[in-house]
Write a structure and sequence with these properties.
Elements (H helix, E strand, L loop, with lengths): L4 H5 L6 H7 L9 H4 L1 E9 L1 H11 L3 E3 L2 H4 L5 E9 H11 L2 E6 L2 E6 L13 E9 L10 E4 L2 E7 L5 E7 L5 E5 L6 E4 L8 E2 L11 E5 L2 E4 L7 E5 H4 L18 E4 L13 E4 L12 E4 L2 E2 L27 E7 L2 H4 L10 E6 L5 E16 L10 H16 L26 H5 L2 E14 L3 E13 L6 E14 L4 E15 L6 H4 L16 E7 L5 E7 L3 H7 L1 E20 L2 E20 L16 E24 L2 E24 L14 E24 L3 E12 L8 E12 L11 E15 L10 E8 L2 E8 L8 E14 L3 E13 L2 E5 L8 E5 L2 E17 L3 E18 L4 E3 L4 E3 L6 E4 L1 E5 L6 E4 L5 E2 L8 E5 L4 E11 L2 E11 L2 E3 L1 H7 L47 E3 L2 E13 L1 H4 L6 E14 L10 H4 L6 E11 L1
Parallel strand pairs: 2-5, 6-12, 18-21
Antiparallel strand pairs: 1-3, 4-5, 6-9, 7-8, 7-10, 10-11, 13-14, 15-20, 16-17, 18-19, 20-21, 22-23, 22-58, 23-24, 24-25, 25-26, 26-29, 27-28, 29-30, 30-31, 31-32, 32-33, 33-34, 34-35, 35-36, 36-39, 37-38, 39-40, 40-43, 41-42, 43-44, 44-52, 45-46, 47-51, 48-49, 49-50, 52-53, 53-56, 54-55, 56-57, ...
Length: 1111
């Protein structure tokens, strides 16, 4: 409990009587007491003289009874910048005294062992050790006390070390306490060394240690910048093959966008955005760093080099090995990453070995996966389709063919449409399953700690024809070679095998009246229809049917990838607080892709139906290395703490691909390019080098005022000769108001204000764009020739972002914690195409043109709703709002029809013709022209800026409940506002008649115009005629507001008494439901809402069971 500081200062020796009436000594874990250091040199001094000198050197006062120190012999003290707690332990233990610290008051009392008869005094022993958190970072200010004796207590210092004197006459237990950590009790054995590792409390609002890269780690309350950490326990119940999907809904300001594949897939990675879109022409993706090594994640779109079906590079990492994610967002944290930090940085820290006895942990998970039917885009069945088709036919040919003699899909003898009602969803989408086994080992001594993990992951996707297997191995080792020299190795290897199939739009667009099979069970290659012949008589015709089911089952599309990462570091403690570290890391990926189009379907035939067979063999290799040498300094002098960082970094990114294609094979069993009649090969190589220098200086006073200065200088081989170097930097400050002497609001535990400003860059436009590129794969008059593909620009350089960040954090009553951050980010010199005269031989050049602004606010609220003996309930809510504005372009207006960029507008704002509905008199489609007048003529010139795809608010809500050995977690994600363009509806499935002939239609066609006066949502369908209603307009915009129940996980810790007899230390079981439901605003006039119209495949739901055991 916080006391009034001025009142305490008046507590001197004459307040002894009042203090004794209190009857107890309250020990408060004030972290300053652990960082305070003193220098003192006295000889033959009394205890009271030593106390007086310590009061002058610190802001502490000593409180004690005069008889406690009387008669004590003179002592010598020789302390040079030692922690205060260490000096007190040395001085008081020898004098038979003990102490307790309450804010800035040190209460000294006599030990129980100091009795009148020295011969009866029990002997004492000194226990030493170190206190770590779950990530093996030392914890500062941990209260260490003897169980049952609050007077025997101490605290861990800045390095996590503690020392305590305890009675040696019986078995003793030490209790370790720390805010935000679970209380730990440990029995003292025969030895004098006792190390402790504390776990984060599931219900605490802890002051956790957050890693910021380059050897920098700070407590949350000491950080100047904006960094959000997600621990392993937050993701352990979230099934996913890819780690980027694990962060959805957990991090404020981080948005996950789904691409054209299912969200659980390992196909081209999800788009990840931190604080909005960062660029117009370059990548807006953050950079990912694993244990200090940046992993290759592509150029603009994070795609692999030289292969057709790209897998996410993040799918090669095993989520079981991850200790934490740290998302860096503000200038004070990202400026150290310079030229590539403007889109944010995501640090991944993997698990480390512990100083403990060998421990083996095994886990098994199995899940059933199925697409959620409520999210399927709804289309017509065969009967509904035939009714619509006939009606649209009659709307055109009622006068000339009233008996529908020439209607293509008549139910005549031998016609394939007689009895077919194919549900194409069921042909492409089914039930998948996932199996995962992980075994890990951890343990070690003070000299060496190891973590070894191996796992097998297998997934059959609900989208049939897709599967993945992953074998992975990780070894993390830390070795203390000498007392001041340590060596660390982080390595991981994985082998991935995937079969890939994408049905595109076939699973909803194929006509339900077509069967995929012939009568003999083979796959259909043609479909038949009725057509008027030259004599005017209806006759049966046939046309090619590109049956993708046949392609799925008869073709090959397989990828094999080996991924290896290694990071070696050597660290030497030169002096106290001064550390030199050298680090070298590599990221290597080798992908082999084999595809084959079989002769038995159209992918292996030419336009004349000749059976050829087409094969492709691709090989892609990526080798990225980086080397860092850094000098870290951190020391505390009384109330002052200073830190410094200086470093050098070099990196290289080399990518090479080779590809061979061939066609005309003997049969479908011989697929190697060597045996193809026609063969073509290609290859390519890209190399990029970056050289960087960076530094940081930090200062804090009395845990109240903090100041941080960062700088980085980058050189990049990809940019123009004149501007290959750029300078970035930041300045940040924070103020812990709650540590001020004037602040005496008991219920507010933390009140912190912070601000930062700085610059960072974005270089991910593409390789060698500044150099001028030529394509030499051409010929002229039979001789080799080249064609310029891009023109040189010697001044092409980085985008530069200028960001301001202001934050406020309040924690009150140790139950509620709220943090609000606002930011303003301006990006200048944006990388984009600049139009130039065609006399140069090109139409555009890559250049630094334009500027853009992102502004927003992020809110995080953590709450301990209920905390009882056997039950607790916590809630975390995060929400973010981002607003984008284009400030400058090379032209007033750029872009395509659907989205146009213009100064003053939002980059993500739609530019569409406004839909006015259906004319109730005649069923014609209506639009608004650019002046707002209703018209029945569609023109792209009528397009106007209309709404944005960016939501007003988005975030996540998580609740955790614990009752005895049971735990329940519920994670929901939400989006408020923002409009998405339905690629399903606009893909001619909400047609006015033209595409009805060849594609199935949305169920919205059931609400079509049929007679004058109908208030319909779909126009009058006219067979084979388009009146423009399926063209891009606001008709196909859907409100993206939704609430999704992403995950529910129920866990049970099996009582230890049940499993110890079979050698198991701990065991637990898990039942998890993933992607259970999604709620959207319901529009009764629209049968397909945004829920059914999201891009990509239907949402995949899963049920998972799991078992964990520790040996």
């Amino acid at each position: 409990m916080k006391q009034n500081r001025h009142h305490k200062i008046r507590l001197r020796f004459n307040t002894l009587l009042v203090f004794m009436l209190v009857g107890t000594f309250h020990i408060c874990a004030n972290a300053y007491s652990q960082t305070a250091r003193v220098s003192l040199n006295v000889k033959n001094a009394t205890i009271e003289e030593v106390f007086h000198e310590l009061e002058k050197a610190t802001n502490y006062i000593f409180l004690y009874k005069s008889e406690v120190v009387q008669g004590k012999k003179a002592i010598n003290v020789d302390a040079n910048n030692k922690p205060l707690t260490q000096v007190l332990n040395e001085v008081l233990t020898s004098a038979g005294l003990t102490y307790a610290i309450d804010d800035n008051v040190i209460v000294v009392s006599s030990s129980k062992s100091n009795s009148a008869n020295p011969q009866q005094r029990p002997s004492t022993r000194v226990i030493k050790g170190k206190v770590f958190d779950e990530s093996n970072y030392p914890l500062i200010g941990v209260t260490v006390k003897l169980k049952g004796n609050n007077k025997t207590a101490t605290f861990s210092d800045t390095d996590g070390n503690y020392q305590i004197s305890i009675p040696a006459d019986a078995t003793q237990t030490l209790v370790f306490s720390y805010v935000g950590m679970e209380q730990l009790e440990m029995t003292v054995g025969r030895g004098d060394i006792l190390n402790a590792q504390m776990n984060i409390s599931s219900i605490g609002l802890g002051d956790v240690v957050i890693e910021a890269g380059y050897g920098l780690a700070q407590k949350r309350s000491d950080m100047v910048g904006s960094a959000y950490q997600v621990a392993a326990k937050d993701i352990q119940n979230l099934p996913s093959a890819r780690i980027d999907n694990l962060l959805e809904g957990l991090v404020p300001g981080l948005a996950i966008g789904y691409n054209s594949d299912s969200e659980g897939s390992v196909r081209p990675r999800l788009s990840t955005r931190i604080r909005g879109e960062g660029s117009l022409g370059a990548s807006s993706e953050p950079i990912w760093i694993v244990d200090g090594t940046r992993i290759y994640s592509g150029e603009r779109t994070n795609m692999a080099y030289g292969v057709n079906s790209t897998l996410s590079p993040l799918s090669y990492l095993d989520p079981n090995d991850i200790e934490s994610f740290t998302v860096l967002k503000d200038p004070s944290t990202i400026a150290l990453y310079g030229a590539d930090g403007s889109n944010g940085v995501i640090l991944i820290t993997t698990k480390k070995g512990k100083v403990s006895n060998p421990q083996i942990r095994a886990s098994v998970k199995y899940s059933l996966d199925k697409t959620n039917k409520s999210t399927r885009f709804k289309v017509l069945n065969a009967q509904e389709y035939m009714t619509l088709a006939k009606e649209s036919y009659m709307n055109r040919y009622a006068a000339t063919d009233p008996d529908m003699i020439f209607f293509p899909y008549q139910n005549v003898e031998n016609n394939m449409y007689s009895n077919n009602d194919t549900n194409w969803y069921d042909k492409y989408l089914g039930t998948g399953n996932t199996a995962e086994v992980n075994v890990s080992y951890t343990g070690g001594s003070e000299k060496m700690q190891n973590y070894v993990s191996t796992s097998y992951y297998q997934k059959e996707y609900a989208t049939k024809g897709n599967d993945q297997q992953r074998f992975s191995l990780r070894t993390n080792t830390d070795v203390e070679i000498l007392k001041k020299l340590t060596f660390s190795v982080r390595s991981s290897f994985s082998y991935n095998v995937s079969n890939i199939f994408s049905p595109g739009t076939d699973y909803y667009a194929f006509l339900p009246i077509i069967s995929p099979y012939n009568e003999d069970g083979t796959y259909r290659m043609y479909y038949s229809y009725i057509e008027k012949d030259a004599a005017g008589i209806p006759s049966e015709k046939s046309s090619k049917f590109f049956n993708s089911l046949a392609e799925r089952d008869e073709n090959d599309n397989k990828q094999r990838t080996f991924a290896g990462m290694a990071n070696l570091s050597l660290s030497y403690d030169i002096l106290e607080g001064l550390n030199l570290t050298g680090q070298f890391g590599v990221d290597y990926k080798s992908t082999q892709e084999n595809t084959y189009g079989a002769m038995s379907n159209w992918s292996g035939r030419d336009s004349n139906a000749n059976e050829l067979g087409y094969a492709t063999r691709s090989s892609s290799n990526t080798f990225l290395w980086n080397s860092v040498v850094r000098l870290n300094y951190n020391r505390t002098f009384g109330k002052h703490t200073v830190g410094a960082l200086a470093g050098f970094e070099a990196s290289s990114d080399e990518r090479r691909y080779t590809q061979a294609t061939g066609n005309t094979f003997a049969n479908d069993h011989i697929k190697e390019i060597t045996y193809a009649v026609s063969r073509v090969g290609s290859s390519g190589e890209v190399i990029n080098h970056v050289l960087s220098y960076f530094g940081q200086a930090s200062y804090s006073f009395d845990r109240r005022y903090y100041l941080t200065l960062n700088t980085r200088r980058d050189g990049n081989s990809d940019f123009g000769e004149d501007v290959q170097w750029a300078q970035f930097g930041s300045l940040g400050a924070s103020w812990n108001i709650h540590n001020e002497s004037f602040f005496n609001i008991d219920k507010i535990n933390v009140l912190k204000l912070k601000a930062s400003y700085g610059t960072s860059g974005n270089s991910r436009l593409g390789n060698m764009q500044a150099k001028g590129l030529y394509n030499y794969g051409n010929s002229y008059n039979g001789d080799p020739a080249s064609v310029m593909s891009s023109i040189q620009n010697k001044k092409l350089s980085w985008e530069t972002s200028y960001m301001t960040n202001i934050g406020l954090r309040v924690r009150f009553m140790d139950r509620w914690d709220m943090e609000v951050e606002v930011y303003n980010k301006k990006t200048k010199d944006m990388l984009s195409n600049h139009a130039i005269s065609m006399t140069t031989g090109a139409t555009a050049i890559d250049a630094n043109v334009g500027s853009m602004q992102n502004r927003g606010v992020e809110i995080t609220i953590e709450s301990i709703n209920l905390k009882a003996k056997n039950f607790d309930w916590t809630t975390t809510l995060n929400m973010s709002h981002t607003k984008n504005k284009i400030l400058e372009l090379e032209a007033p207006r750029l872009g395509s029809t659907n989205k146009v960029w213009e100064v003053g507008g939002d980059k993500n704002r739609w530019n569409l013709v406004r839909w006015a509905g259906v004319n109730p008199r005649n069923g014609e489609p209506l639009w608004y022209d650019d002046k707002g007048n209703i018209t029945n003529v569609y023109s792209t010139s009528y397009a106007v800026p209309y709404k944005t795809s960016v939501p007003t608010w988005e975030g996540g809500i998580s609740n955790e409940f614990r009752y005895k050995d049971f735990s329940l977690s519920v994670l929901m994600t939400y989006m408020i506002g923002g409009y998405g363009f339905s690629s399903f509806s606009s893909n001619n499935t909400t047609s006015d008649g033209y595409q009805i002939m060849s594609q199935n239609q949305s169920v919205n066609q059931l609400d079509r115009w049929q007679k004058p006066g109908d208030l319909a949502i779909s126009p009058k369908p006219i067979w084979g005629i388009s009146n423009g209603s399926s063209r891009a307009s606001t008709r196909f915009l859907f409100n993206k507001t939704h609430l999704r129940l992403k995950n529910i996980a129920l866990g049970y810790n099996i009582p230890k008494s049940y499993v110890r007899s079979i050698g198991i230390t701990n065991a637990s079981v898990l039942l998890a439901l993933d992607n259970i439901a999604i709620w959207t605003p319901y529009d009764k006039s629209d049968r397909n809402s945004y829920r059914q119209s999201m891009s990509g495949y239907p949402m995949e739901s899963s049920v998972t069971i799991g078992l964990n055991a520790t040996f």
